[in-house]
User: Fold this.
Amino acid sequence: MSQSTTTDRGKPYHLRLPATSANLGPGFDALGLAMALYLTIDAWVADGFYIEATGRDADLCARLEDNLILTTYVDVLAVAGVLAPRLHLLINNEIPLGMGCGSSASALLAGVFLANHFGNLGWTGQQILEEACIREGHPDNVAACYLGGMTASLMSKNSLSTSTCGENLIWGLNLAMPPASLATEKARALLPATYPREDVVANIQSTALLVAAFAQGRGDLLRIAMQDRIHQPYRMKVCPLLPLLLPLADSSATLSPKIASPRILGVALSGAGPSVLIITEDAKPSALPAMIREAAGDESLEVLQTTISMGALEG
Ligand SMILES: Nc1ncnc2c1ncn2[C@@H]1O[C@H](COP(=O)(O)OP(=O)(O)OP(=O)(O)O)[C@@H](O)[C@H]1O
Ligand SMILES: N[C@@H](CCO)C(=O)O
Assistant:
């Protein structure tokens, strides 16, 4: 992107927003886990809109047209009746776009943070969070992106309630990434309008257990607690990695603690897919990528290894 002609940039407004893995299996639209892969932005007022981007999907992040960060920024200020100052953004992105890692939540939250700061809106953190959740349409990614750890969220009449736990757990978060992205909108369109009662009950039971597992650091509960019956079965046809990798959760259950194989605690579709999240007892186990590639039958499959993030930084 072209350079801003702003000569004296001064101290930038700084944002660092984590990737998120929503749902964690049964917690559809309710649970999100913040991951230590970041969208980092430094912003200054300038004489025009400029973006310089590095990192993952840098070409998409640097686009000025239909850029979710900028459209959110401009729209929030337009609704507030404030003329949007033009900005120079310096972006470094580590979050894969359209892969089920909460890229749109981080971009929306960034746009709202920028609007609040450069438009002097004076919003509280709760107002910023609610605005981004309303724009996303469901709170799971946005709430975890802001608050970090494993965040449970409920949106009722545009008012958000949240609770966070597990931010200090050192479990490994391993993401198997197929080559092509999948738009969340498309993955949501595959879901039925109603569900059998037994599927809903099974998901309520799993979700309750899953929250307890994160709150108490009970990795032994994840294999059962990450089972889902309300979105994963319907998304398998557009997320072909999922049926190949779900059995990995069972493979570790029978291992003797003496065996030095990476201990897999649970497996789920990451967000709306197509990536798959594999949670391990240890952070970044070196033998796991090869195990995942073998199960997927794809030697070149990308595997990202990361850990739980504490959430957003701004200022
Ligand atoms: N850093 C960014 N800059 C500009 N646009 C972005 C950025 N991050 C995400 N987007 C926009 O959001 C789209 C991806 O959003 P989508 O909801 O489909 O997937 P996701 O958020 O990555 O996955 P999920 O919601 O399942 O976690 C991108 O195609 C792009 O339009
Ligand atoms: N809960 C959302 C997360 C993706 O944005 C879904 O599964 O569609």
In short: The chain has a mean pLDDT of 95. The CA atoms of residues 105 and 142 lie 5 Å apart. The pocket of adenosine-5'-triphosphate (ligand 1) is lined by residues 22, 39, 61, 67-69, 93, 97-105, 107, 141, 183-184, 271-272 (CB under 6 Å). The chain has two domains: 13-166, 172-306.
